[in-house]
Write a structure and sequence with these properties.
Layout: H1 16-25, H2 31-40, H3 45-54, H4 56-65, H5 68-84, H6 92-109, H7 114-129, H8 131-134, H9 138-141, H10 144-162
Helix pairs in contact: 2-4, 3-4, 4-6, 5-7, 6-10, 7-10
Amino acid sequence: MSFNYNGLMMIKKIDIDELWDKAQSDPNHDLELDYAKENFYQRNEDEIFSAFNRSVIERQSELESLPPSLFIFYFPFFNRFILAGKHLNEDLDDIVSCYLTLVDNKLDSGELDLNLVDDTEKAVNYLYINIHKYNRSPEIYGDLREKAALIKSKLVLYESKVK
């Protein structure tokens, strides 16, 4: 089965089956990769959004485990999940913390594909503007407004370095 994710302006079709097979054929692959496949592979946006609402912490960990070839395909769902704003109230802090942590880790490792930066900036800006809804437990998560501001700055620097 092939998918063409035109949101990334890709020229060739992506053979998702082949990418998953290659990632899982590595005998040392992270077990999170297997869980990621259960939650993302051949799922539509509504199903993936439901998976984020079930446990954003686990989805963040699964996305983190993906090789870049799969991450570039599935991370946009996290951006759209953030921008949709339809989050379970009890998980608002977790959602922002997990998202910003994942973006921060990818920026620090240099693994955020340049094709993902614009939509990631939109999602981070959305969180920054609406942080009053999400920043409910600073004693646990720290000041998420500060973290979002830091990520916004890092995205601008990253984009200028990678180009």
